[in-house]
Amino acid sequence: MAASPHSPNSTFRRLRGQHSPAEFAALVRRAAKEIGETVSCDARYIGRVESGEIRCPNYAYERVFLHMFPGRTLADLGFSPREAVRGRSAQLTGRSGAGSRAGSASSFKESDVLRRAFMAGGSATVAAATLSLTLLGEPRRLPSRAGESEAAAVEDAVRQIRLLDDRHGADALYRKAAEPLRTAYALLDAGATRQSTEDRLHAGAGELAVSVGWLAHDSGRFDDARSHYAEALATARVSGDAGLEAHAFSNMAFLARDCGRSREAVRAAQAGRRAARSLGSPRLLSLLALREAGGWAGLADRRACEEALARAHTEFSRGETGADPEWMSFFGEAELEFLEARCWAALGEHARAARHARRAADLQDPHFARNVALYTAELADDLARAGAPDEAAWAGGRVLDLLTEVQSTRVRSMLSETARALVPHQRSPRVGAFLTRHATA
């Protein structure tokens, strides 16, 4: 029987069996990859389902759950029918009743626009999406006080931006993503109906600032990225959110390394590590150690770089936990190999870098097209500088294939550097063919 409002979903809890919430969330993410979906499932999401807070999952989760439990319906999994949830003045998290304000049906429609605008994907949808508060396409004033539906909409906007970035890259998304960020901070400025809602809005707006900053970063707009990351850091400091602070510092370290400010990268990564100490996430500490290693490599400090890499591997080996942030779903063995490859490349050890880049490309799920292109571009450049021009040309050609569906200034810039490195070898038929194709791409 489907769960009623505020009633725990005991059916779903039984299906989880002996797995911890974090372990079950990992199974959900794995099942999503099997069918070409991407969901940012973590222990917190599983808890919200089992508490009855999420009465009906979104369509992506629905497809994943039905894949995991073939032959069953949503009702068999303890969920309410979608039409029953949509037909009430329920909020996007599945909550209703106490705390709902007058006019919540309109608020639901407005927030549903926020949720759905980025969901379909594809260039046409991306170009049209604004994620501003609208009703049937007509602009509306922001609510006087934000509720749970607005907080959920901001959180969902973050997830959908990350999903589309994984599939298509940042270039087509950045300018459109600025509108939901403005909306999120306007909602935060308006205040919330409850303190718990205001806390969610702070966290959601900060994560949205990081996401939009990353879109600017990946599309070569470094000044914009720096501004957005600083905005996220300020939001974290105001709300006392250590997780958001660590995320902001991680991205600031990444940006500093890409801008050639290596010592700033080291300091930002170390600040992120201090913020993350109390969070209980070895994977987050691993990523921050890799960010620090990248800074040390840029400073040509091999010993410090190797020490940071060793810490990264030690923390990574501790495995996933329920405390791992939702945004870290991208960080697996492939990303670890890629970031280590960047370190060895910065230290001038290109053959060693190529080995790690190759492993990164081989390990990456093909569904994450942007990262496959990124890792393969790193491989091409490392091979070119390691004295393997024909292999580099082959890898570069693979990147050009991927750039038909991925729009990333960062990847294109990396490939252009590789092309310049291969010019002395243009008499090779394979290299010549790649250079010609790259010039006309």
Describe this structure in words.
Helices cover 67% and strands 1% of the residues. The protein contains 21 helices and two strands. The chain has helices spanning 10-16, 21-34, 43-51, 59-68, 82-86, 104-116, 122-128, 148-168, 174-190, 195-218, 222-239, 242-258, 262-276, 282-298, 302-317, 333-346, 350-363, 369-385, 389-402, 409-422, 429-440; strands at 134-135, 138-139. Helix 2 packs across helix 3, helix 9 (174-190) runs antiparallel to helix 10 (195-218) and helix 10 (195-218) packs antiparallel against helix 11 (222-239).
* Unreliable sequence segments: 1-5, 86-140
Order of helices and strands: HHHHHHHEEHHHHHHHHHHHHHH
Report the radius of gyration as a whole number of Å: 23 Å
Give the strand content. Answer: under 5%
> Helicity, in percent?
55-70%
- Average pLDDT across residues? 82
Largest pleated sheet: 2 strands, antiparallel
Shape: globular
Strand order of the largest sheet: 1-2
Terminal CA distance: 56 Å
Question: Which labels suit this protein?
Answer:
single chain; 441 residues; mainly alpha; two-stranded antiparallel sheet; 21 helices; 1% strand; globular
List the helices and strands and how they pair.
Blueprint (H helix, E strand, L loop, with lengths): L9 H7 L4 H14 L8 H9 L7 H10 L13 H5 L17 H13 L5 H7 L5 E2 L2 E2 L8 H21 L5 H17 L4 H24 L3 H18 L2 H17 L3 H15 L5 H17 L3 H16 L15 H14 L3 H14 L5 H17 L3 H14 L6 H14 L6 H12 L1
Antiparallel strand pairs: 1-2
